[in-house]
Specification:
By secondary structure, this protein is an alpha/beta fold. Helix content is 34%, strand content 24%. The protein has 10 helices and 14 strands. Helix 6 runs parallel beside helix 7. The longest helix has 20 residues. It is globular and about 45 Å long.
Length: 340
């Protein structure tokens, strides 16, 4: 691995997503990508006794499916990188207690999907591991209870609010050839332009996404049209136009090839306000939809940039603004790379 420019890791070894899985809840299953997920549940409890157990079940199911698709057992995995939105990343911690794989808990809020994928790739490229499992999760009811109001409260929200995706995504990264190759990653900086409204994550996170995308293009000397798609994680309807305008100010035009996972995961007529967010937003869209598009030959090269708001309720109550971050990973389609 070498550092390219300021913030981009270019991997030396051939690295691949050898298998992946996406598991979702009812609203996600009812969305336009509903038939592309590996498993869906028709109610938010997912057959469990409470919301937190439901989220843990989502992550466990995503991992089990990912291992099965990759013809792997937990004992074949050298390292487990995982994170979620709940205090002290307890969903990941309790899942690691169950699977007994050496574990590194990670937190980048909704950017954790690409953070875990980037770090997994770096560890394998540096020969610290051979097979790394990554997983993230989020759940609408657990996130609402922690960051805003319990679902049962029925509080009103503005149109700028996003809807936390109920789901989990998992992947196995290794040097075993597969149709999806990981070639580089750009690690983001913490950005804060003074947004303090917890119901407007799109405006808060757009500057971080713009900074990471612009830095990646400068580091690599590429133009936006080098990619068939540059996908952001959680900007949705409010943050997406801000991102495009910020990049246009730097002479980068993404209007032809940008998509946001928060807008892809739901239909416009679903009750999701500005669109989707959460750790699972970029994960289920990437692992459940974008990789299938790459394997089908519809996308050859994509840059997935997951965005996260690094705040908690106490800091917001103390009138602090919201720091945000974005991490991006480049995925390329490989012809004849395997079947997973």
């Amino acid at each position: 691995m070498k550092l390219t420019g300021k913030q981009t890791w270019t991997f030396s070894k051939p690295l691949y997503i050898t298998s992946s899985a996406a598991v979702v809840g009812p609203e996600e299953a009812a969305g336009p990508l509903g038939d592309q997920y590996d498993l869906s549940f028709d109610e938010l409890h997912c057959g469990q006794d409470n919301w937190e157990l439901a989220e843990r079940h989502l992550m466990e199911q995503a991992i089990n499916i990912c291992l099965e698709k990759g013809s792997k057992q937990a004992s074949d995995i050298d390292l487990f990188l995982s994170g979620d939105l709940i205090n002290q990343t307890v969903i990941a911690n309790y899942t690691a207690r169950q699977n007994q794989i050496p574990f590194l808990g990670m937190f980048g809020a909704c950017s954790t999907s690409m953070e875990t994928l980037a770090v997994a790739s770096a560890l394998i490229d540096g020969e610290f591991a051979n097979n790394v499992l990554t997983a993230v999760s989020s759940h609408n009811a657990t996130a609402e209870r922690q960051f805003r109001y319990p679902t049962e409260y029925g509080g009103q929200k503005p149109d700028s609010a996003t809807y936390t995706v109920t789901g989990a995504g998992a992947s196995i990264v290794s040097t075993t050839p597969s149709p999806i190759k990981i070639t580089s990653a750009t690690i983001g900086r913490v950005m804060d332009l003074g947004i303090s409204d917890p119901f407007d994550m799109g405006s808060a996170m757009a500057p971080a996404a713009a900074d990471t995308i612009a830095t990646h293009l400068k580091d690599t000397g590429r133009s936006p049209d080098y990619y068939d798609m540059i996908a952001t994680g959680d900007l949705s309807a409010v943050g997406t136009p801000i991102l495009l305008e910020l990049l246009k100010e730097q002479n980068y035009d993404l209007t032809a090839n940008h998509q946001d996972c928060g807008l892809l995961v739901y239909r416009p007529d679903q009750p999701v306000f500005a669109g989707g967010s959460g750790c699972a937003c970029s994960a289920v869209v990437t692992y459940g939809h974008l990789l299938k598009e790459m394997k089908a030959g519809n996308l050859k090269r994509i840059f997935v940039v997951a965005t996260g708001a690094l705040m908690n309720p106490i800091m917001i109550q103390q009138k602090e603004s919201i720091p945000t971050i974005a991490h991006g990973v480049v995925l390329e389609a490989v012809s004849g790379g395997g079947n997973q």
